[in-house]
Amino acid sequence: MPIKIQNSLPAIKQLEAENIFVMTDERAQSQDIRPLKIIILNLMPTKLETETQLLRLLGNTPLQVDIELLRAATHVSKNAPLDHLTTFYKTFDEVKDNHYDGMIITGAPVELLEFEEVDYWDELCEIMEWSTRNVYSTFHICWGSQAALYYHYGIPKYRLDEKLSGIYVHRVMNTFHPLMRNFDDKILIPHSRYTGTHRSEIRKHEELEILASSNIAGVAIVANKNGRQFFIMGHAEYDRNTLANEYFRDRNKGINPELPYNYFPGNDPRALPALTWRSYASILYSNWLNYFVYQQTPYRLEDIKSFKE
What we know:
Strands 1, 2, 3, 4, 5, 6, 7, 8, 9, 10, 11 and 12 form a twelve-stranded mixed beta sheet that branches. Helix content is 29%, strand content 24%. It has a domain at 3-156 and 193-234 and 287-303: 3-Layer(aba) Sandwich (Rossmann fold), CATH 3.40.50. The chain is built from ten helices and twelve strands.
């Protein structure tokens, strides 16, 4: 998939080095087609890294995708350069009158806070409500999934006994669901979180369906049966070394973390982790874009209707 992004976004060089088809604004303007409009609300502190991870996966089908990046205006980012944010990111006020084929809401390292204690919670609630009428299908990741399940359905999160970190095997619960097409019966997904969501709480809502689950990591993929919302509890987009970087960061802080599960060969943190989940992540994002964005969104984005009405 050619992904259309701003010419000077730092992720371009890395993506082109990996043979990901990146299309600049000038080239896209010469094509007489309507690209899919995808907006990414990036709540991660490592914004440049997260951009590259997501764009890599969105660039893996024949569809042209027009990417916009969104940040929380009510939060001051301590890790992303201000000039990067002002150059490449928009605020909600700048996009609230627009419509989009799809949206991604990332995770955020705020799990140990109550939702209402997060400094941008009110803004996030406004954006999530907006997404139900201005976006056809929204893809939530990790804490973004927990926040959305809480806001839209009142489903609480709960604190785990210890951090869940590693690569976990999950069983596909419905192999016939379009999001799960071409998956094996068992798939690998990275997780990195301190909180979770109970299956019993999700099953109280008949409009929600659990699509993948792990005996160790719990619920991993949840879908609204109307195809307008998906909730991914892990981080399928993670790079080979993302969990390693988190592990060493925490160790250097004196947190004394457990080794990520099923990650370092021989549980040796000096060993290079094997990349075992990339193909599953690629299929996941491709299926979402194809079956729930490209094939479902009205050609006129203004014709998108709220599914809450």
